[in-house]
Please model this.
Amino acid sequence: PAEAGTPALCDDWSFLRRVTLDTVGVIPTREEIEAFQNDKSPDKRARVIDRLLGDPRWADHWVGYWQDVLAENPGILKPELNNTGPFRWWLHDVFLDNVPLDRFATDLVMMEGSPAEGGTAGFAVATQNDSPMASKAHIVAKAFLGVEMQCARCHDAPFHPFEQRELFGLAAMLATKPIKVPKTSSIPQVERTRRPLVEVTLEPGATVDPAWPFAEFAPAELPDTGDAKFQIVRDVTNPRERLAALLTSPRNERFAQVLVNRLWKRWIGWGIVEPVDDWTSGKPSHPELLAWLGRELIAHDYDFKHVARLVLNSHVYQQSRWAGFQPAGQAGSLSHRRATAEQIVDSMFLAAGKEFRCEELTMDPEGRQKATNCPNLGVPKRAWEFTSLSNERDRPALSLPVAQHVVDLLVAYGWRDSRQNPLTVRDETTTPLQPLLLANGVVGQRITRLSDDGAITELCLEDRPLPDLIREVYLRVLSRPPSDSESQATVALLSQGYDDRKVDAPRKRPRDPKQTPVSWSNHLSPEATTLKLEQERLAREGDPPTDRLNTDWRERMEDVLWSLVNSPEFVFVP
Model:
C-alpha cells in the first residue's frame, strides 16, 4: 500500500495491462490475467514483474526501440543506402540473453562479424555516404552519451559545444585510422559574400587523428592495472577498443545515466533529463535519483533488468494516472502515453488470437539472387520484424500486399519503415489517418472478423451463458471485465439469436499467401502483375468469415469487437 502523501496506486486490472505492455510489448493473455487475479499474496505485483522480466518477449519489445535509436535500416531490394541487413537479429539476441549494457555498447562499437549474417558489422554499413564513420559516431554519441553532434558533421556546431574536429576524431576512432574530411562535409567559404553564421575550423581534405572528445565524461587515458594480464583492452593500439573502454568505463557515469534515463522516459513518460538524447541544455529534474539509478546499473554489472525491476516496483510507476494532476513534464509524475505502433498491432493480433500470415519479406523467394541484392528478412511474427516494402520503381509485381497493410497501419502510428537517422522520440501527433485505418483498414477488418482461424470465434462456439462470453471478450481485448452498464448493453445487443447462433458447417481453411512464381527473376512478365493484383484483391477482402455462426448474430458480435478495438482504452497505456 502507498504511504501517506504518495499518489494512489492504480488498480490491479490497470497495473497488469500497463506492466505487460511495458515489458513484453503486448496486452496480457487471458491466462495471465486469471493467474494474477487469483494470486492473493501481498507481493503479487513484484512476482508478476519478475515473471515478465524473465519472459523472452522482453527482447521483442526492446528491439523496436533500439532500431530507432541506432538507425537500423534494412532493405529487401538492391539496398544501396545505409542498409544494415540482418543486424536486427543481433539486437534481439542482446535483450533475449540480457547481455550487460556495457557489453552491448562494446560489441556495437567493435562492429565485428558478418554484415550478411547478423553481426555488429551490419551497424558499420553506411554506403553512399561521404563519411560513414562520422555518421556512426553521431549515432553512438547520441545513443550512449546524450550528445547531439549532427551539426558538427559539416561545421562547428552553433548551438552545441562541439567542433567538427571532435566529431571526426570520434569517427576516426571507429575507423581505427586517421580520416579525411570530405569536401561534401563542409560549408564552402566564398570570398566577397556574406560570412556564414557558422564557423568552419576544418579545411576540406584535412586529416583528423583518432581522439576521445569527451574529457568531461572520462579522461582519455585508460587506467593502468599494473599487470599486463589484466589490461582494460586487448590491444591498446586499437582505437575502436579504446573507444569502447572509455565509453563504458565505470568512471564515465554519463554512460550509465543516459541509459537509465532512457528507461525512465519510456516507462514514466518524462525523462529525468530532457531531451533524453541531447543533454546540452537539459538539467536533471531529480539529480539524486539519476545518480542513484546510474550507480545501481554500474554496481550490478550493467544489468538492465535490475534497474527495470527498481522502476517497475516503484510507486511512481504504479501510481494511478487519475490520482490528481501534477505539473506536466515532471519526472515524478506519470504521463498519459499512447501505445507504440508495435504494441497496438501486436496486441490486436494477440487479442484476436490470429497470426500475421503475411508473405516472406523478400523479393527473391526462389533464393537465386545474392543476399546483398535481395536480402530475406523472413516471415514476421512480431511487428518489429517488418521493414520498408518499397522497391526502386514501385513495380506492382514486387508488392507484398498482406504485409503492406500491416506496414501501413504501423506507419500511421509513428513507426518508421526507413531509418536514415537516429531517433528516440517518435512523432506522436494524432492524425485523422490513425482512427480511419484502425476502423476501416484491412488489418482492423481482419481482427474484428470472426473467421475460423480466430480465438474469439472459438469462444463464441463454446456453451456458456451470454454474460460469461461478454466477460471473456472484454478480458481478452481490454484486460478487464465489463462494467454493469457495458454488460447490460452488450447482452441486449447479442441476446437475440444467441441460443441459435451455431450452424452445422465445416471449418474454412484460412487464406494463406502462397509463394507465387513471382520473384525478381520474372517480375517483368505481364502475368506476374496479374498474379499480384489478384493477391491484392484477396488481401483487401480480409479473412473469410466463419460459416459456423449465424450470419446476423456473427455480424453483431463483430460490431462489439470493432467498438472495443477502436476505443481509446485499447490504444492508450492505462
Observations:
- Strands lie at 179-180, 207-208.
- Residues 323-328 have pLDDT under 50 and may be disordered.
- The two ends are 19 Å apart (CA to CA).
